[in-house]
């Protein structure tokens, strides 16, 4: 998908990406049993994995989509890339006939921004193309967990409910199993071939849709290569003769050279996420939070030397005064975009989408501006050890009470929204109506004000195609983004639980809630590394060791992905 807006919170995450790009990309406390899927249970206390021994027969057959050939094929887990100009007259058709039967489908989904009225040209055109009357119940994405919990606890559940991975704490997995339909009879195995665009969604993404031993979700796939890139001002680097650092020591040395507080220039923002990458710290952005089998023993990221070393290096950056003062505010820091554009700092770690969005944002007002992505090196200058992210993180579920005709209509919607870039259906889903929501000049589609206000956060949430990067307006950026993923993908390793939808027993749900705050306190000098070591020791006694045993049983029952 091609995002349309650039602003984002300072802390990189899948949630901030979705909230900021208009693409759309708080645990609920619970005491009820959670997911008892194909994998292990925990003596009645709940929890489990999506990847049990019977998972294969639940998954849809994979059939590659040959409607459109990407300019840059996927490699090492990267997105596919498109750089060519668009000719609307030659767009392919991936859905030759309406699959919808004219029924009505209600969809509740998180929304960032001001939702448009239901009766708008974008919604009307999409519904007409699909043959389904989709009625949107958009909810504030920032407080979605509150609304979600209330709706799922009621008897009035919409036909479709979109649930991001970060909203799946507490009782939500139990609700998914009890409230939503088994889509296996419609999609498992070769049945998915009735919906070719859904058949082209990678199998890894579908595996994350298994709950309670049933295929219940429709996924939004993503590349498993880390989405967090150390972005930098290449134009200023070139002008000043700065070299991209190739180790942790070189980074700190360069940061000191760049920084001149009196001139209001600092080297970077908070680089904690880059530190995780340089020191090979296990991924911890989504459950399972940093568990992996190492030398025959399950360990968590917080128990490793690499974790402490990454925190210490980040602390050194703050202590050296090379980090912009705004970063000390943590999650309350303002959007870094304006100060990055003004050259107040030259490096920050953010979602890969900002490589394009910052470029587009500055194209007319600052033509010399050039943002680029640094390759990540090992802290010692060698090859990095990067950990794979989960291959899907947002899912749409169908009400268990829905009739077969409603389910077919939902799948008709999903088959359209999962159409690949370069098709009429993709353009309609992501850009709206030509002339109303976007214009095309020299092969480049550009959204109008109305397009930016209406063609956001909606249909893409039902289902999406394989991870795609497409920027005909800045083809060099699209090419660089995909190639960055391919290079980093060659150093990316899948953890033991890669691809599994893990739900921990409810008593462990909040076990690690305080660690992110402690990390930030340490890196900003308010706490010491010894405080983290003490916190880890307490974590073990409060449930960490028992949680380790629980994860070990999952491995014993389901096997490892690595």
UniProtKB/TrEMBL annotation:
Q: Which residues form a coiled coil?
A: none
InterPro entries named in the record: Bact_solute-bd_prot1 (IPR050490), SBP (IPR006059), TAT_signal (IPR006311)
Matches recorded under PROSITE patterns: TAT
**SUPFAM superfamilies, A to Z:** Periplasmic binding protein-like II
Pfam families hit by this protein:
SBP_bac_8
Query: Could you tell me where this protein is found in the cell?
Result: Cell envelope
Keywords linked to the UniProt accession = Signal, Transport
Q: Is Secreted a UniProt keyword of this protein?
A: no
Keyword check for Transport: yes
PANTHER family, alphabetized: ARABINOSE-BINDING PROTEIN-RELATED, SN-GLYCEROL-3-PHOSPHATE-BINDING PERIPLASMIC PROTEIN UGPB
Recorded family membership: Belongs to the bacterial solute-binding protein 1 family.
Q: What is the name of the protein in this document?
A: Extracellular solute-binding protein
> Organism, per UniProt?
Streptomyces hyaluromycini
């Amino acid at each position: 998908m091609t995002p349309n807006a650039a602003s984002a919170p300072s802390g990189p995450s899948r949630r901030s990406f979705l909230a900021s790009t208009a693409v759309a990309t708080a645990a609920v406390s619970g005491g009820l049993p959670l997911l008892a899927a194909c994998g292990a249970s925990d003596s009645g206390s709940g929890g489990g994995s999506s990847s049990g021994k019977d998972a294969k027969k639940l998954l849809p057959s994979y059939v590659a989509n040959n409607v459109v050939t990407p300019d840059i094929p996927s490699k090492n887990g990267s997105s596919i890339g498109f750089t060519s100009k668009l000719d609307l007259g030659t767009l392919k058709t991936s859905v030759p006939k309406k699959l919808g039967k004219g029924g009505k489908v209600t969809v509740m989904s998180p929304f960032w921004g001001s939702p448009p009225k239901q009766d708008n040209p974008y919604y009307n055109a999409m519904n007409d193309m699909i043959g389904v009357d989709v009625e949107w119940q958009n909810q504030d994405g920032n407080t979605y967990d509150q609304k979600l919990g209330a709706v799922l606890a009621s008897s009035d559940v919409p036909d479709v409910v979109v649930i991001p991975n970060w909203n799946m704490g507490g009782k939500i997995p139990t609700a998914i199993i009890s409230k939503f339909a088994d889509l296996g009879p419609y999609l498992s195995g070769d049945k998915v071939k009735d919906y070719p665009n859904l058949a082209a969604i990678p199998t890894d993404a579908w595996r994350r849709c298994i709950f309670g031993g049933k295929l219940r979700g429709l996924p939004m796939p993503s590349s498993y290569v880390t989405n967090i890139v150390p972005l930098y001002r290449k134009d200023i680097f070139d002008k000043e003769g700065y070299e991209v650092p190739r180790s942790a020591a070189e980074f700190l040395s360069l940061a000191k050279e760049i920084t001149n507080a009196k001139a209001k220039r600092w080297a970077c923002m908070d680089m904690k996420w880059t530190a995780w990458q340089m020191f090979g710290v296990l991924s911890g952005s989504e459950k399972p939070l940093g568990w992996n089998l190492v030398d025959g023993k399950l360990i968590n990221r917080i128990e490793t030397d690499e974790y402490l070393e990454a925190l210490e290096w980040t602390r050194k950056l703050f202590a050296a005064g090379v980090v912009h003062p705004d970063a000390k505010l943590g999650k309350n820091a303002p959007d870094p975009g304006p100060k990055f554009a003004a050259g107040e700092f030259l490096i920050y770690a953010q979602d890969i989408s900002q490589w394009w969005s910052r470029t587009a944002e500055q194209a007319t007002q600052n033509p010399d501006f050039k943002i680029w992505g640094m390759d990540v090196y090992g802290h010692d200058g060698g090859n990095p050890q990067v950990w794979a992210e989960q291959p899907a993180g947002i899912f749409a579920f169908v009400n268990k009470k829905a009739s077969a005709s409603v389910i077919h209509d939902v799948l008709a919607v999903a088959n359209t929204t999962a159409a690949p870039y370069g098709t009429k259906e993709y353009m309609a889903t992501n850009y709206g109506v030509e002339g109303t929501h976007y214009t095309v000049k020299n092969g480049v589609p550009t959204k109008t004000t109305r397009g930016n206000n209406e063609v956001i956060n909606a249909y893409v949430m039902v289902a999406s195609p394989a991870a795609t990067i497409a920027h005909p307006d800045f083809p060099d950026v699209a090419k660089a983004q995909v190639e960055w993923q391919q290079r980093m993908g060659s150093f990316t390793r899948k953890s033991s639980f890669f691809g599994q939808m893990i739900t921990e027993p409810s008593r462990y749900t909040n076990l690690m809630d305080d660690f992110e705050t402690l990390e930030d306190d340490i890196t900003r000098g308010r706490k010491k590394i010894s405080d983290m070591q003490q916190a880890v020791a307490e974590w073990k006694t409060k449930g960490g060791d028992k949680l380790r045993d629980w994860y070990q049983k999952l491995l014993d029952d389901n096997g490892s992905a690595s």
